[in-house]
Amino acid sequence: VLHALCDALLGAAGLGDIGQHFPDTDARWRGAASTDLLRHCMRLVRDAGFAVANADLTLLAEQPRVGPHRDAIRAHVASELGVPRDCVNVKATTTEKLGFLGRAEGLAAQAAVLLHGAR
C-alpha cells in the first residue's frame, strides 16, 4: 500500500514514478522500509511546492482482511503525510475469487492523492 502511495504522490507532483527514484539496482534502497521510501517521496513532493490534501488507498486481496487494521493504517499514513486522519481513506475489495488475487496468491494496492500548492 505504501509503495502505491509513493507512486501516486510522485505522479501527482509530476515527479516520475517509484522505479525512477528507487531502482532495484541501487543498493542504497535495498531492504529499505516502505515508510522510509514514503518519507523520501514526501520530501520530494514538499520540495516541489506541494502538500497533500487527501489520500485514498485500496487494497485488492482475498486475505488479509483489512477491517481490523483499517484505523491503524489510516493513522500511520495520515501521520506520515502530515494530514488529519479523516483525510486518509483505506478500503479493500476482492476479485471475487478471480485470478491470482482471488486464489490468495498475492495482493495489489492502488492509491490516489490530491495535492495542493503551486510550482
Could you provide a short overview of the structure?
With 119 residues, the chain is of the alpha+beta class.
Describe the protein:
With 119 residues, the chain is α+β, with helices and mostly antiparallel strands. The chain has five helices and three strands. α1 runs parallel beside α3. The radius of gyration is 15 Å and the shape is globular. The mean pLDDT is 90.
Strand order in the largest sheet: 2-1-3
Report the strand count: 3
Please bin the fraction of helical residues.
Answer: 25-40%
Main sheet properties? 3 strands, mixed
Mean pLDDT: 90
What percent strand?
Answer: 15-25%
Structural class: alpha+beta
Radius of gyration: 15 Å
Number of helices, where a helix is a run of at least 4 consecutive DSSP H or I residues: 5
- How far is the N terminus from the C terminus? 27 Å
Give the helices and strands as they follow along the chain.
HHHEHEHE
Q: Which shape, going by the Cα principal axes?
A: globular
Low-confidence stretches: none
Give the topology:
Blueprint: H1 2-12, H2 18-21, H3 34-47, E1 50-60, H4 70-81, E2 88-93, H5 99-102, E3 108-117
Parallel strand pairs: 1-2
Antiparallel strand pairs: 1-3
Helix pairs in contact: 1-3
